[in-house]
Amino acid sequence: MLSAMKRIEEELEQIRQQGLWRQLTPHSRMGACHESGPISFASNDYLGLSQHPAITSAFHEGLEQYGHGSASSRLICGTSVAHTELENRLAALKGTDRALTFSSGFATAMGTIPALLGKDDFVVLDKLSHACLIDAAKLSTATLRVFPHNHLAKLESILQQIRSRHGSAARILIVTESVFSMDGDLAPLREIVELKQRYDAWLLVDEAHGFGVLGPHGAGLAEELALQGRIDLQMGTLSKAAGLAGGFIAASSPVIDLLINRARSFIFSTAPPPALAHAAVCALEIIASPEGQFLRQQLQERIHDFTIGLLPDPHRSPIVPLILGSNEAALRASQRLAQKGFVVPAIRYPTVPRNLARLRVSLSAVHTPHAVMALREACRIIDQINQADHPH
Q: Catalytic: 149?
């Protein structure tokens, strides 16, 4: 035991020396909007719904109606009418037969991909896909192939190779995000859909950072491009723009039935509290309403205000990466912004590739124009300092 503890201490020291040390920081208020104290540009509260009074009221109503917990897994006695109502609303918003909710986005991926694929199948994954998608692909035991980020030619080459070597019987699942969580760029979704149809593959699109933000009703990039009916598996989360917690998959009835019977993270987990599902229905109503449209428009204005002149190209997602390179530079920049009253996280390996450490700015519809402009000016100054310290 002593030797094991010594090894752990050595590993921790190595983490510190590499500039990769992380620790938990308690906050008294969550989300993007704070009445006092530092202004957070770190959360995924893209529409400011984590503090929305109507959702708070719905949560209290759910507690009164259903109690605090579900007390069981969904397949025993943990399925509430609130869960089924939420799933029906999600399916309607995503334009699918049905939807199934999980305790988190991570649990959604870890349950879905291994339930659908096995050792004779293939997962073709964008290199910058979220860790939950990578881990789920590995857990499935399917053969994993990775294509460079948004590289359509390489994706097609991999699909061609699989079909030529294994014929039409091979099950292929293409996996991508709609909005990538660390770069904030969008997938070329229309072209990927065309490739998946050409090579008779399935497609899973993780809309975690697109849901609530994109599309006329906030259903995501698939809705914006009118592709929802051509995507086999639409994954998402309620923990970002919806301001709550939980994950979901929207798909055809046979797929949902298979997940209910095979997805281990669904079968063997206690159901999320029904009160949470009740509040999530309220969040979906706001997202799809004129108020949701107004918040999305306001969010786009904040994105434009922050990125104009700071980034070389137009930017549409609320995730704005400012790449600084080294872990030390990113940590220093984050600390300097904290001194100016801004919470902006330094993102380092393994969340992003080595030597691509960055500030990750997360914008929200409820940020004030003044705060956004002040942060932009502070980031300009920090970038100038970083270039002076490390000239090319």
A: no
Task: Point out the catalytic residue in the list 87, 206, 207, 224.
Answer: 206
Q: Which of 121, 177, 185, 207 is catalytic?
A: 177
**Among 94, 209, 278, 367, which one carries the catalytic annotation?**
209
Q: What is the pLDDT of residues 118-158, one digit of tens each?
A: 999 999 999 999 999 999 999 999 999 999 999 999 999 99
Q: Give me the pLDDT at residue 287, please.
A: 98
Q: How confident is the model at residue 5 (pLDDT cuts 50, 70, 90)?
A: confident
- The structure tokens 């942060």 sit at 375
Q: Where in the chain do CATH 3.90.1150.10 domains reside?
A: 29-46+318-389
Is it the case that residue 389 has pLDDT exceeding 80? no
At the fourth CATH level, the homologous superfamily of domain 29-46+318-389 is Aspartate Aminotransferase, domain 1 (3.90.1150.10)
- Tell me whether residue 224 is one of the annotated catalytic residues: no
CA angle 222/227/233 to nearest 5° reads 70
Tokens of 84: 């089924």
Q: Backbone dihedral region of 95: left (phi > 0), alpha (psi from -120 to 50 degrees) or beta?
A: left
What letters, b where the CB count within 10 A reaches 16 and e where it falls short, cover 104-135?
A: bbbbbbbbbbbbbbeeebbbbbbebbbebbbe
pTM of the model: 0.90
Instruction: Report CA 71 to chain centroid distance, whole Å.
Output: 28
CATH 3.40.640.10 location in the chain: 53-288
Q: Tell me: the pLDDT tens digits for 35-83?
A: 557 899 999 999 999 999 999 999 999 999 999 999 999 999 999 999 9
Q: How far apart, in whole angstroms, are the C-alpha atoms of residue 322 and residue 359?
A: 5
CATH number belonging to the domain at 53-288, selected among 1.20.58.2190, 3.40.1080.10, 1.10.443.10, 3.40.640.10: 3.40.640.10
Active site residue 150: no
Helix, strand, coil content of the chain in percent (nearest 5): 45, 15, 35
The tens digit of pLDDT for each residue in 16-39 reads: 888 777 776 766 665 665 555 789
Average pLDDT over residues 190-196: 98
Q: Is 44 marked active-site?
A: yes
Clarify whether 209 is annotated catalytic: yes
88 is catalytic: no
